[in-house]
Amino acid sequence: MLRSRDTDADDDSQKNLHLLVVEEIARHKGVPPVRLHPPLYSVIDPDALDAVLANDTSESDSLSLTVSFEYDGCVVKVDSTHDVEVVPSDEASER
Fold it and tell me: Number of structural domains, the chain?
C-alpha cells in the first residue's frame, strides 16, 4: 500500500491532485509516470477529480470526501486531504 502522505505537504499543495494520483500509481507499478498505460484520463476525468476533491478551507474540517476507482488491477482511493492510497484489487476486496 502506498500513500502520498509520505511526501512533503507543501509540494502536494502546489500540484494538481490528479498529478499526485499519477505519481502514486506509477510508484506502485514501479514505472515512470509517463509510462503508465492506460493513461489516467482513460479511467477517470482528471479535472473532475481535482474539482470534486478540491481542498476548500471554507468548508467544515469535519467533512471528508473519498473517491475510489479501479485502475489496471489496483484500487485507488483519494480523499479531500489529498491522501492517495493504491492497493492491489484483491487486497482491497479483503478490507
Answer: 1
